């Protein structure tokens, strides 16, 4: 395993005391594998990825669990050891390409800075390598772009530059936090194709964080569905779309708009919102939004365990289908 | 700009490329040059610095030489007349430029450097360090500024360098707070996070990625600082707590204007230093405006 997150618990200090943002998350990423992490805003998927990079800021910290990357526990590395890893062994692409590049330096300047840090190249060779990377991510006229400032580039172009920067040091793991969310749909497809192509070329594993199941279907080998700081379902991408077991996953699937939806149909949505971190419901964290919830769900928190080979879920109904009422309860009129 | 000689399409493409590929410095100076007042201000400022440096060669007389003509009106020998002890006003005006330039730029160089480093580190480190530094700046800002300067100057003795030190001592907190404020915003920026995720070291992030982005307000503030320091020096010298006669400073030259008869009958004694103070302060402030526009990459 390249990356093994085990019982990760990440907490943040707030005015209301310590809140747990990620609670007991375990994820494995194999070599060359692309793992997708899906969930609503605030479910802890970004915090999970930031925990891997240890970019949690002043107030956040990994309270329990370990993050094993290439055999080392990242949670215990010193800041300087970690700095060696960042950029070199693992790199990150952020959601907002418009603000991820420093406005006062040229694209080339920033690319070369990244290259200088993690390679033995010098002077002219660095610049040539930078141009080669820009070419690789499909930027036309790379030598002109090298000398432009970020504000002269469009969002899609900037995201390409970010990808070039992240991949310039041939990382083993690429964390992409909603890499296409801020882009136009047409550009999204281009960027996804680009990432797919480069993944094969460089052989990096990708941890892809998104709320877009379409992106997951396109990219991921394995999918982790997160809800309220916990993993609620994990399986390979085919099984997930074929046979989603957790009611939350099912809800996510139903809320994807399709072209063949009848025009009169209202798109289904999951009622309610992710519970606040400071006030988690007892029992199953999803029970107050779940159409299938019973008394047991309100009292006992389900454990995360496999129901079939390679398909784990955190749901009583999915784990004990035979004793469960399979009909969804009537939706109360609001 | 490029050389567009003919109107063929190829040339135009070439021109666009040329503009894109110009260096950061050239781009900035081009934006600065668009600001007409700033260019005028810069020329005047450079001219005054030139005068300060070459004062001994430019001055028509020795500024300390006492002649027999007391309070003489401007003439062909003494272009701006002489003062009450018979010294040439133009020579004194030229030598006084040195005082103003040294006080203005010296003070600012000192306190902007110090204040910027303090503000940067305070904001980036945060926590109790930030808390402590900010309370110290609060303390400095709560002192009755002018009074403390008067006391310190009278204790340490009114020399040029005491003036620079004392003015700097009471000016850095404002810069430190300003820098801290912008760094607090800047350190949340995605490109700072991206820098950390690329494995850049903390000093590199602080000084290479955060500082240049905080530079625009620092520069504007620093130019106002130059003007303010020159004015403070003039004020203190006017009160007799600054540069001491016989050394000439625009401020102590104005002291003469305290008497009504000089005010009304001998304008060549106080008008030139007054105008010089006005001109240099205005010129420097224009330069600041121009630099602010030039540094803003979003323009």
TrEMBL record, chain A:
Q: Does the keyword Transport apply?
A: yes
Domain (ABC transporter) spans 3-253
- How does this protein sit in the membrane? Peripheral membrane protein
Q: Kindly list any coiled-coil regions of this protein.
A: none
Which PANTHER family does the record associate with it?
DIPEPTIDE TRANSPORT ATP-BINDING PROTEIN DPPD, OLIGOPEPTIDE TRANSPORT ATP-BINDING PROTEIN APPD
Q: Which family does it belong to?
A: Belongs to the ABC transporter superfamily.
User: What is the designated name of this protein?
Assistant: Dipeptide/oligopeptide/nickel ABC transporter ATP-binding protein
**Protein's organism:** Paenibacillus glycanilyticus
Automatic annotation (TrEMBL), chain B:
Tell me the compartments it is located in: Cell membrane
**Which residue ranges does UniProt annotate as crossing the membrane?**
37-58, 101-125, 145-170, 210-232, 268-288
For membrane topology, the record states:
Multi-pass membrane protein
Domain ABC transmembrane type-1 span(s) in chain numbering: 97-288
**Taxonomy, superkingdom:** Bacteria
Keywords associated with the record: Cell membrane, Membrane, Transmembrane, Transmembrane helix, Transport
Pfam name, any one: OppC_N
The entry's family comment says: Belongs to the binding-protein-dependent transport system permease family.
Name of this protein:
Peptide ABC transporter permease
This protein's species is: Paenibacillus glycanilyticus
